[in-house]
Amino acid sequence: MALVAAAFLTFAVSAGLMHSYPVFFVAFLADFGWSRAQTSLAYSVSQLLTGASSPAVGVLVDRVGPRRLVLIGGVLLAVGLALSARVSALWQLIVVYGVVMTVGANCLGLVVLTPLVSRRFVARRGLVLSIVQAANGFGRAGSVPVVQFLISTLGWRRSYLALAAVMAVLIVPLSRFFRAAREPRAEPARAAPSASSAGARDWTLPEAMATPHFWLLFLVYLLTGLGSFFVSLHQLAFAADMGFDTLHAASILGMGSFLSVAGTIFTGTISDYVGREISAIIAYGISIVGVIAALLISSADQAWLLWIHACFFGLTWGARGPMITAKTADLFQGRHLGAILGVISIGTGIGAAVGAWASGLIFDLSGSYRLAFILSIASYVAGCVAFWFLRRPAVVRA
Asked: Domain for residue 17, yes or no?
């Protein structure tokens, strides 16, 4: 399981640094006076580029292996964090965070790690992918309160420099984890409940794109991105609007994010037994409860509702990821899994970009996040429906 631990740590570092943006978001609003839609732009560009660059990253990991990509990604992240400390205009933030840091993080992300892990662990694919995906919540849980504390004590510019120093120290150790991991020995296969004999073929990207399942997976990723990012980027700003102290609210949201480690591993594990579809629907339902709790908050006296929101929304943050990636591996096994997953990941980039920016625009126009949260619930419900249609094996259209 050393490979799984290495993938977990690598993704946790990347996710933690990138998901610290919601905390800096509040600082940018106070320092620059940008609108919420404007301040969301860098984050939206980041999510869009994450999806757009995923096919290229997927092809690269299939060809050159993960070690070089992790090394390149770590350097880009460290440079981007250092440059962020000198940002003075919106376009600079878009370039540094939306482009430089995003490409770096993508080289340390799931498109690189999923093919490696899914080929090694066939029988326990849902479990191990959920463990790796749980690093997303683990990174967010640690970064939100820590970064808020750094900003409160050092200011946001020095906080970026501190994070850049941490990343610079971790670059070489992270890359060494994958020195001999390019072609790991696979464990004996055991068919998952949702897998099919069709998965035995060596799927190419054009063959996969000729199936309805490929586009259903794309749609599921898009709807999941919409549902999640109508809320996630603006959580701390929303809590501040309701009158909560930002450091206190960041601690509550961070605790909720930490729960995603257990929630993601649980839902991913049961997907090996009850099927990816049932497990995904459970995860969507839990997230919907969390968003409903946020809709009910009207003042800082309702801290218990903020706790319910943080815990339920956080519990399944990223929990759909293992089901989607495992389902992709179930349906489209072979040497080109990285490229296939990379193209499908464009969907989540589009959904996350639109959701994060549209939520800020909705607030600018209405003075409330209420409509954005309702759209989040609608997206999750639609995601349940789309995922359910993935039950049958993939077949290439004649």
From this structure: yes
